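Hi there,

I know you've been waiting on this one. I reran it after we fixed the sequence typo, so this is the corrected version. Both the input and the resulting structure follow.
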Amino acid sequence: MIMNGREGMTVTISFHGKKRKLMFLAATVLAAVVVFFVCTAHASGGIPGAENEDRIRFLHQCGWQVEEEPLSVREVTIPKTFSKVYQQYNALNQQAGFDLTKSAGKVCQQYVYHVTNYAGNPDVRATLLVCQKRIIGGTCLPPHWMVL
């Protein structure tokens, strides 16, 4: 690369150990804030999530187009006591009107959908948590940023 008649320089920054984990966490949190939950949860009664159509409708309301069938479905347990990472994850969900503390200790379903309309990254995944037939939270991230 040539800049102003001179050869350009490439700078590579490398993080190790704690710094790497902190940078990874910061990038994940930032991406989650920027990318997902433009819409907020209904104050009373929550958002229906028992049926696939309910979940897809919710994602469409948030502006996301997804493939009709989830990539994966699995049971997850919301921890009774939140780690620091889970506290940050819950803080993001709270900004969107969700609160995972209400489901602490409960077994929920995690649905992962492939987002088809995220410009610049064809691998983005929308993850929804459903507990007692209601959407209780989620994220929208590239798969390599998923930490929970």
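Quick highlight: Residues 39-145 form one domain.

Best,
R. S.
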